[in-house]
Design the sequence.
């Protein structure tokens, strides 16, 4: 027989891991509800042209792309935003703005598997569509901050920049957007020298090169000081100055509203996706080099897909990466302890009664399992304890004649005889 394993870059999540993943997912749904984001579900498979349009060269090269049986070139989604932009440009084009859309699920990229980076991964995604105002950007930052607090990760910070700073300079230097994109890809990977060499080949001015080199060195948490320093460096580029002002407005509005989070402002920070036009950010914790989430403003993507010119801003949170951060920081998820009842028929003739009791408890929203392995009572009790049962119900003939069962509280190591009609309350109360 062949020895089957998971495909490279894919993972199995065992019950404990799956429970934590679903717990984090439930927190993202809670945030979505609090902020008024409506859930949508998009296909895992989309047309290659849609996914490749503005994803960036690196993602295009690492996409799971293939021809289906009809000969159409399709791909597994590497991110959510393209699918949402398609929806907004078509089915939702006449819906009143703003649109607040939320989705959650698995994504696929043919990356080299390494710590915290797999070929199948999970994200929650929030998109606020229709507003160009800084308060929309603030909302995306705020909900991300709220999620980090709900999860309980410690010492996280936001790396924040603005695509308009670098792109504004290069546009004023006459560099077309398609020639800017490979440079941004290098800067995204911190391959600064390679990016600067590309700019030399594009024949940008020495002043531009000097300015960008100086921006690469700037990073800091003191908002006003850092922004003023950036403003001085780019003062000869009107578009870049406007981008700095926009970033300052977003950050000031965030802090003035009472939101507290640590920031590192980095003007040469870039993200791999090509569609970003404004503020961009990523969230980190000290224990991991990979971001727990990231996003930013993209004001031209929906138009690219045939919709009306529509400003938008969004964020994706890595559910499996957040779980990894929790493990690193030894954070126990605050998952409520639900009762787990194991029902053991003492004799074979009582199996149907055990099944009946289980159905009765489930209808009262109590998790109930029937012992189905034919074990002795002693071994069945040992197994129930090993699997974390909170209560065991022993269905025995003598008690059953009096419409009673024996209930053992596995946490207190106590047992008593309980009337059948009082059984659900006994479980839920103890």
Sequence:
């Amino acid at each position: 027989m062949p020895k089957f394993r998971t495909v490279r870059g894919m993972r199995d999540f065992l019950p404990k891991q799956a429970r934590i993943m679903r717990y984090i997912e439930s927190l993202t749904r809670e945030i979505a509800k609090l902020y008024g984001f409506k859930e949508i579900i998009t296909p895992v498979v989309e047309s290659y042209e849609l996914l490749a349009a503005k994803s960036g060269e690196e993602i295009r090269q690492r996409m799971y792309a293939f021809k289906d049986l009809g000969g159409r070139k399709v791909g597994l989604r590497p991110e959510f935003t393209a699918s949402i932009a398609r929806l907004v440009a078509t089915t939702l084009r006449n819906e009143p703005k703003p649109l607040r859309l939320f989705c959650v699920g698995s994504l696929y990229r043919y990356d080299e598997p390494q710590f915290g980076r797999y070929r199948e991964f999970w994200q929650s995604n929030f998109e606020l569509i229709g507003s160009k105002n800084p308060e929309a950007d603030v909302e995306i930052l705020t909900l991300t901050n709220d999620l980090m607090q709900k999860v309980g990760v410690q010492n996280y910070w936001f790396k924040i920049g603005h695509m308009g700073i670098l792109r504004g300079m290069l546009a004023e230097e006459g560099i077309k957007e398609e020639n800017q994109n490979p440079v941004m890809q290098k800067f995204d990977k911190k391959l600064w020298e390679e990016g600067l060499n590309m700019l030399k080949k594009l024949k940008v001015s020495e002043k531009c090169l000097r300015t960008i080199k100086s921006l690469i060195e700037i990073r800091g948490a003191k908002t006003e000081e850092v922004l003023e320093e950036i403003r001085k460096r780019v003062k000869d580029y009107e578009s870049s100055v406007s981008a700095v002002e926009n970033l300052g407005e977003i950050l000031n509005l965030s802090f003035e509203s009472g939101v507290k989070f640590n920031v590192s402002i980095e003007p040469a920070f870039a993200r791999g996706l090509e569609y970003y036009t404004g503020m961009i950010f990523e969230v980190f914790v000290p224990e991991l080099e990979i971001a727990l989430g990231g996003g930013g403003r993209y004001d031209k993507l929906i138009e690219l897909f045939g919709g009306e010119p529509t400003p938008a801003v969004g964020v994706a949170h890595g559910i499996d990466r957040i779980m990894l951060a929790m493990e690193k920081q030894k954070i126990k998820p605050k998952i409520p302890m639900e009762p787990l009842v194991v029902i053991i028929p003492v004799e074979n003739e009582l199996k149907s009664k055990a099944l009946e009791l289980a159905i009765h408890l489930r209808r009262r929203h109590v998790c109930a399992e029937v012992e189905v392995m034919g074990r002795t009572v002693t071994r069945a009790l040992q197994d129930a304890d090993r699997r974390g049962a909170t209560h065991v119900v022993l269905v025995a003939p003598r008690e059953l004649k009096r419409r009673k069962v024996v209930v053992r509280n596995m946490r207190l190591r106590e047992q008593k005889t309980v009337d059948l009609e009082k059984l659900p309350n006994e479980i839920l109360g103890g």
Residues 340-429 form a domain with the Rossmann fold fold (CATH 3.40.50.800).
